[in-house]
Amino acid sequence: MTEVQHVTEVAKGISDYGMMAVSAAFFLLLSAAMMIALFKWFKSMINRLLEQQECLNQLLDTVQDNVSLQRNLMERLQPETLLRIRNLTGFAFDLSIEQVCRLIKRVRIENHIADREATVNKIRKSLQVIHDDRKSRFDPFIYHGKPLSEYCNENWVEDVVSVVESEIYNEDGENNARAYTNVKLAYDNIKTDFYQRLNS
User: Domain-by-domain residue ranges, the chain?
Assistant: First the structure.
């Protein structure tokens, strides 16, 4: 009986170990297959990333070429843009010269200029209206990302007020030619300041 029992135990042991060996082999094969599949998946992802990187590099090169072309165009157009701005603003400032000369004549005729303070206040208000009108006409035009009106200076009004006041209360009396010359000189200074603001 012991022999039969020994044989049965050996058969059972072989049977058990054989099943374990088969299971272990199966799991080893499954693990190897999963590792191979994962490695292939990682390899395909890396290849796709490399292809996308090549595409992105080509796109970056194209964008850099476009930026350099745009920079060249901007450099070529900047002097022309500045020339257009100078022409446009030159007409606006020339119109302001005429408006101020008419204002001087009108104040001499219509106002009681003996009241100097009231006269100067009226002049200041009129010149502020002219200045604000000119600024509003500059608003639609852009230079360096800002409307042209931002390059205007509020102190210009006071500069012109002093010129107009000195013309109205000049001891030598009325002289339209002198008034025009002085107003034009004031607006030439304003133009110079405006162009310096554009270039700074």
Answer: 78-199
